[in-house]
From TrEMBL:
Residues 3-141 form the UspA domain. This is Universal stress protein. Keywords: Cytoplasm. SUPFAM superfamilies: Adenine nucleotide alpha hydrolases-like. The keyword Zinc does not apply. It comes from Pseudomonas fluvialis. Homodimer. Gene3D superfamilies: HUPs. Pfam families: Usp. InterPro entries: Rossmann-like_a/b/a_fold (IPR014729), Universal_stress_UspA (IPR006015), UspA (IPR006016). GO terms for cellular component: cytoplasm. It is found in: Cytoplasm.
């Protein structure tokens, strides 16, 4: 199986570098294109929906900061350019699946913490992404920080 377009989902933490390295390694083996996505989760979602105040200025700042972090992140990889780096806004699973479909990606690469105990109940982005994915999903095991 040869992949043609690999979509890398990152939360822009330092932990994500092994995910990127694995995805880039796979893509270069197959001669595939790469794209990157980071999804900003709306602040109202964190508060469970209804928030009795205007969050638009905070949201604008959140978006600018995310764009800056994404640019700094991408600068470290020559394969990443402004054209193949995307910022989504909404629910990560929905945004990542939508971009994967629009861009005809055939592999999504994501990090996985291998949760257990209580953390399992909270779920994980990798697990969430598997449901209804429009293509293959590779979960790269992330090591716990020492
Ligand atoms: P988590 O399950 O939230 O610990 O995240 C595991 C992995 O999901 C991260 O290493 C990223 O690959 C991906 N991920 C988490 N949050 C986001 C996000 N907001 N946008 C894109 N990818 C994400």
């Amino acid at each position: 199986m040869v992949y043609q377009h690999v979509l890398i989902a990152v939360d822009l933490s330092e932990e994500c570098h092994p995910v990127l390295q694995r995805a880039i390694e796979l893509a270069s083996r197959d001669g595939a294109r790469v794209s990157l996505i980071h999804v900003i989760e709306p602040m109202a979602m964190a508060f469970g929906g209804d928030v009795p105040m205007d969050l638009s200025i905070l949201q604008q700042q959140q978006q600018q900061q995310a764009q800056q972090r994404l640019d700094n992140f991408a600068r470290q990889y020559p394969q990443l350019t402004p054209d193949n780096c995307h910022l989504g806004f909404g629910q990560p699973r929905q945004e990542i699946h939508q971009l994967a479909s629009e861009q005809q990606c055939d592999l999504i690469v994501v990090g996985s913490h291998g949760r257990h105990g209580l953390a399992l109940l909270l779920g994980s982005t990798a697990n969430d992404l598997l449901h209804g994915a429009p293509c293959d999903v590779l979960a790269v095991r992330l090591k716990k920080p020492a």
